[in-house]
Amino acid sequence: MDRTKGQITKIAREANKLAIRTMKEDGIGSGEMDLIHLVRHNPGISQKEISQQLIMDKGAVARRTANLEQKGYLVRKKNPTDGRSQLLYATEKAESLKTSRAAVESVFYEWLQEGLDPEELAAFTAALEKLYLRSRQESGSGFSHVCKRLASRDRQYERPEDSGFPYVSERLTSRSGQYEHPEDNRLPHADRQLDEGEEGGQPSGTES
After folding, report:
1. What is the pLDDT of residues 113-140, one digit of tens each?
2. Please, which residues have CB within 8 angstroms of residue 46's CB and are 6 or more apart in sequence?
3. Dihedral sign computed on CA atoms, order 64, 55, 153, 1
4. How far is residue 205's CA from residue 197's CA, in Å, rounded to a whole number?
5. pLDDT digits (tens, 9 = 90+) for 179-197
6. CATH number among 1.25.10.10, 3.20.20.80, 3.90.550.10, 1.10.10.10, domain 11-98
7. SS3 state at 89
8. 36 Cβ contact list (under 8 Å, min separation 6)
9. Calculated CA dihedral for residues 156, 161, 163, 167, nearest 10 degrees
10. So what's the pLDDT on residue 136?
11. Which residues of 177-200 are buried (b: 16+ CB within 10 A; e: fewer)?
12. What is the mean pLDDT of residues 52-64?
């Protein structure tokens, strides 16, 4: 059971919302920010490489890079080893976005921590560091332990009746067994009326 209720992810999501909101004021969307981030860390990258790393259609990459170039966040330079292609670099304006995004998130987390007293903050940061190191170790191992747990859960819920609704499944199974034949799928009081009518030689409720 996840006792955190996914709240670590939710907090990070709220910080990201604030950062995206700030970026929009500069005319930058979240998808554009991902592309700028990739170019910043890979100066001289080609559009083909961007397409492969971001898993984007080549046409979409071409449109987005052209848009960011027009906004002044990217610049193209000729490939010195291949005159037919061009390479992309981040401009100073793009570099300032890193500081802006980091500053926004930093202010948000600083504000958030002000809701804790010194003892709570010390315990929280110690626990968070422990969780962070554990997540890095699991990532380094290829998520071997988590993948085993996921595989075990998949095997547990292979059948529909194992999907977490045992009482409903049991009742449905009982009902299907009770009405194996179409003629059994009738209300009991209706059956009694039919039987009484047949004994009298005519259906119940009809006048002679």
Report:
1. 999 999 999 999 999 999 999 999 999 9
2. 79, 85, 86, 87, 88
3. negative
4. 8
5. 455 455 544 554 555 455 5
6. 1.10.10.10
7. strand
8. 28, 68, 73, 74, 90, 94, 97
9. -120
10. 95
11. eeeeeeeeeeeeeeeeeeeeeeee
12. 94
Closest by CA position to 60, among listed 71, 47, 72, 79 = 47
Amino acid found at 134: R
Q: Which two tokens stand for residue 4?
A: 């955190």
Q: How far is CA 166 from CA 69, 157, 158, 159, 160, in A?
A: 58, 12, 14, 12, 10
Q: Is 181 helix (H, G, I), strand (E, B) or coil?
A: coil
Task: Answer yes or no: are the C-beta atoms of 46 and 66 closer than 8 Å.
Answer: no
Cα 31 from Cα 20, distance rounded (Å): 10
DSSP 3-state assignment of 84? strand
| CB-based contacts of 57, cutoff 8 Å, min separation 6 | 51
Distance CA 208, CA 206 (A): 7
pLDDT value of position 170? 59
Alpha carbons 125 and 14: distance in angstroms, whole number: 19
Domain residues of the chain, as ranges? 11-98, 157-208
